[in-house]
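We recall that each integer encodes one residue's backbone shape. We quote one record:
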Amino acid sequence: MSRIARATLTLLIPLVAACGGDDPAGTAPTDDITTDVTSDTAGDVTAGDVGAEPDVITDVTEDAVTEDATLDAPSDVPADVVEKLSCEAFTECEAAITDGCAMIREASDAYACEAACLETATSCEEAAECLPEENSVITPFDDGPSGLVPRDLAGDFTLPTLDGDFVFSESWNGRDSYLFLLTQQAFTYSTNLWASPIYQWLQQSPKNIHVFFMSYQEADGSDMAEEVVTQMKAQVEEGIDKIGLVYGPGAACKWKRRMHYVPVIAWNVGGWIPQHLNLQSGYGFAIDRHQKIRNVGMLHVLGGGDAQPQLSHLMYENQYYNFEHQRELDMVKEGVTEVTMVESTNTGGGIFEVEFPDAATMAEFDTMEIDLTSHCEGHLEGSGCPEWDYKAWIELRETLSENLDAETACQPKVNEVIAVEEVMGTCSDNGELMCTSDEDCAGEEALCEGYVAPVEPVSPVEADTLPCTCYAYDETPRESTQTCNGDGLGYGDCGCGNTWEFGRWITTYGREGRWVHDVSPMLAFFQTGGIKRMRYKAGNTYLTTMKFRLYNKGKGMRPVRITELFGGGGYANGYNDKYDPMPIEIAETTKRVEVVAHITGHGFGTEAANCAEFCNHTHHFGVNGDEFVKDHEEAGWMYGCAMQVVDGTVPNQYGTWYLGRGGWCPGYQVDPFVADVTDSVTVGQENTFTYRSLLDDEPYVATPSGGGNGGFGSSIWMTSWVVEWE
């Protein structure tokens, strides 16, 4: 696993209470804000060595917008826009959208902004974002018990802003997230963040977010909140005006309505927000689409010099909240059977015995998902979460026959001891005086030199063993042995060491995560049902929940047989030499055949290009001469993993999480590579399977780094199978 550059972001933010102001939490600190941001470089991997950040939304850049460009305020959107608005494009949308459009068309000039936005909408989703919030509620506000720490339900609040009071419960609609950014002039990290470009952030960000700019009191206790946020408003609206010139006045109006500037220092706004900051102060926090308080992660890339956080990295938080919301919707299915391995348990892994439904019930399922949650104690990300990106995996292990001889006396193993003859020593102050210890010598400081103690010989004895039986995932028996324990008081468990990996993840740099991913081909391991013996290796210790979700998706077939193919190994010269063609007979009753693989590249420091981790190595599976290829196009891109936040990669981790890798990302599951090879096989006969890996269409040739800086060798971690469906 790569231990490449990671930032230790320690934000020590004791905050000064305002002179004469109220302290809602009762314990507002009184020291200056300080920050200690450190970073290490990733060997030879720097921002300049990999591809540039992709333009997520459009090819139009800020340079294309003139510096003196301006846009009228929302209230100045021409009223005739309302008169021209047509709602015909949205007749197939949900009623809230069609009704909202009609209301805007008939309403006063107060909705001119929304009308302009609808004029540019090209889908029901875009139209929904144009509507006033009260017409697009999809999840009611939850006024249940709320809390103060991350993952707690966020309670209602009212914030004073430059445009009037903002009431959370009145704004809530289930579509939006809420981001709170705080600064103080002495707090370098946040001042650099607020000074970063606005246009790029808003251009690429999802639009369903409200942003609150807030200020702590200054280091001398003075209240400059109104001045600070007013200045920020001018800066933000300059960027929004450029958005308007490119995307139209409706887009600019929409963003201006979603930016809020709080002219009161954070400790004095009332409600639960000061209490939250008193527990976990910093440069920002958020409320997601499930109305939960959330942390905001590291907002800069690593490299030399001072950290330069970017507002544009905030878009990844919002992308992730949208992903989580959609995932929850997708998980609502009828007929799902959940099997729990571990729930809310602080663990780094271990051996688990998990009971699945019986074979008849398992035969009804054609889909299997693994639902893994890895949280940190107190949800303290950064300093409170494990820091490194390690491989985590779950594997089936052979089950054991019952140990009936755990207390049966037996012969333990005795190691051979070679005889040694005694050799007498002599005293250092009298060479003629023989000795076996210093006490045999006359002088107080004299030593007995050269003495060799005798050793009696011991003949070796092998430990007693007994026959026992191991059972594979399909209950196929295998004879093995159990061995007498070292104390001779009983026999150990049967030696059953065969394993079958069926799920893989890479842990985060210092953040929490949850991953739900499809491993349906692995159902072939579970056809017999009943108790399965598993080993989970978490990489780090987390507050862990793991469940297996089983259901029928109507595929008309299910995986019933699985045959192991090829493993990985050191990724160096001659990597392909060990792979011989493999003949596998495919049953005549098989309807579908898949090649399935987990493939990830790792290694750092021992070869110049660090290619296993950062190059697009390709993996070629041959089936009777036909080729099926897994590639890694995102490897080497500066933002290759950041581009996968929309698919579930945890954003803004405290390390080089954003760099594209060879088959994996920190804070993400390793999805199985699945190739449908049905048309390339002949059922009822032997078929030939082959494998090789290439880089730029040639076998990989490694160049040693010669740096002498340690690290570990390049390798491909691979497990692969042939899966048959019936």
